[in-house]
Task: inverse folding
């Protein structure tokens, strides 16, 4: 049954997914922050892969409560969430065009999942 | 030294957005985009292989608590997992060369490729609403691609 706790879990899963992408990007280095030394890098990789695994198991758990196509519709928020996280935590400059592109992709994912 | 030569020489080889230089595809702006597209193709092939593997009869069944692992004893499933792991390495290679929001948005073409592959290989139908969604994603990724400097 879909209730508040499953919806919260759904939101958590998307945040965990965005976290994992940000950690993996931290490990890979960026313009603003070049690749850090071996141990710090391994740490970011470990947290990134661990949070991706956590997302996977939350997602698997959520499949019991939602139809697969309904569940995948919520995946639509991830391009927007990842873009927001990139701007906040990775100091990436996201142009208005890139934001509108993310909105188009998000809408597209929702439509693909629902039909 | 002429000014133009100096400015080219000043670019460090590891700079993520180095300008195009003839004969050096690996340093071109297109190279990381090609990696993201290869990653999406790899995920699509993995999904199709896993679907084929999941629908075939099991070679043999493991006892109750680990019965769900039985699906692994299929060549299709093993190939699918190999491609999934390969796609993770491609993703990490792309991330070191592209901003995250750009790479992540571009990787969404997997939502176009998977329905297309299902239609071509598995003969599933694509409803009109899904087709419209795929066009939205295509428009979004193209906008993102052209916004990339």
Result:
């Amino acid at each position: 049954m879909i209730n508040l706790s499953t919806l919260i879990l759904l939101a958590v899963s998307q945040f965990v997914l965005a976290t994992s992408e940000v950690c993996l990007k931290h490990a890979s280095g960026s313009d603003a922050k070049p690749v850090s030394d071996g141990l710090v890098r391994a740490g970011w990789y470990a947290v990134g892969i661990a949070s991706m695994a956590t997302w996977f198991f939350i997602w698997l758990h959520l499949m019991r409560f939602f139809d697969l196509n309904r569940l995948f519709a919520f995946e639509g928020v991830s391009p927007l969430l990842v873009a927001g996280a990139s701007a906040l935590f990775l100091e990436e400059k996201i142009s208005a065009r890139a934001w509108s592109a993310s909105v188009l992709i998000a809408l597209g994912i929702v439509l693909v999942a629902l039909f | 030294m002429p000014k133009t030569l100096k400015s080219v020489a000043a670019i460090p080889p590891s700079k993520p957005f180095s300008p195009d230089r003839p004969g050096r595809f690996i340093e071109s702006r297109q190279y990381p985009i090609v990696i993201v597209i290869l990653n999406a193709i790899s995920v699509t092939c993995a999904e199709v292989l896993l679907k084929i593997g999941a629908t075939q009869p099991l070679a043999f069944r493991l006892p109750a608590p680990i019965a769900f692992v039985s699906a692994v004893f299929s060549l299709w499933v093993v190939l699918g997992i190999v491609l999934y792991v390969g796609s993770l390495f491609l993703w990490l290679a792309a991330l070191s060369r592209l901003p995250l929001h750009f790479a992540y948005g571009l990787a969404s073409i997997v939502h176009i490729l998977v329905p297309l592959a299902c239609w071509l290989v598995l003969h599933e139908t694509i409803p009109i609403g899904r087709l419209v969604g795929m066009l939205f994603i295509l428009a979004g990724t193209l906008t993102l691609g052209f916004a990339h400097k």
Observations:
- Chain B is about 60% helix and 0% strand.
- The longest helix of chain B spans residues 30-55.
- Helices of chain B lie at 3-9, 30-55, 75-95, 100-106, 110-120, 128-147.
